[in-house]
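Entry for the shared binder. Reason: the reviewer on the internal report wants the predicted structure included alongside the sequence.
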Amino acid sequence: MKILITGTNGFLGKHLAKEFSNDYEIYTISRKKDSLDFVKKNFIGDLSDFDFINKINLTVDIIINCAANTNHFENQKKAFNDNCLSVKNLILNNQIIYKKFLHISTEAVFLTSGELEVSEKSQYPKKNISTYSRTKKISEFYLRKYSNYTNRKYIILRTRLIWDTENSPVYKKLASAVKKKMFFMIDNGNYYTYSTHINNLIHGIKQCIKYGEDNSTYFLTDGTPIKFYQLIDSILNIKDIHKKIFSLPRWPIFLLCKFSDLIYYLSRKKIRLPLSMSLYYLTMSKVIINDAFSKKKLKLKPRNFFLY
């Protein structure tokens, strides 16, 4: 079987390509040459460039679309090109023939001014709180719209904070911030959140290929809620490291995040302070994901990679 993976210069795309190389003939698309010497062919270019996509003559069984711009406050046009137009181009071109399109999405499509408590059946918010959440939501719209138009099959896979204890971007950023004493906790991290270990994501994708229903949406998570401080310990792989991290009460941080967003918009999006309401609702408040439907349909058995 043949598989095409996009975004293979990123952590997720590279990891998936390596994992699936034993069972599939791997093709990749990346902005610059990737470092994967086992791939059959690496197509180098920009997914938002339709002419580039339309020159790729390829037939595969599955596309896994990992390419994404995850900057929450990216320029709107660039974020749209990277997250939305790229999906449209992959579906509407006449040269890449595939049986199923697996689109890696995120719980952030629901990110708005409030705590996240969602399931696969949740309705989108009318207004998203960041460019990233807005364009990822549009990418799901585009996937459905243009797949239906071309009679192509798709599956949406939503993840939440992809991590491991060595190579993931969240580990590197967190470890660096803690080392520089630039990371702090809210209420000692004593609130529930969700995450997706890279190995549980791989397990979920494999199960999706076996059992996923066409034109469906699933959540792939670690399968259980965890206190935020326990997640931090698990990512850094040091038990009780959270006790050495400075903690602040919730209310002043909430006000600072509000103030930061106000400065951003009053400056016509020219001044971006480190805090934001997007950051607040992503990492500083409760997140609950009901993924019972996905567990049942995909026969998921997420492993526990937490220290607790």
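Summary line for the report: Residues 131-150 form the longest helix (20 residues).
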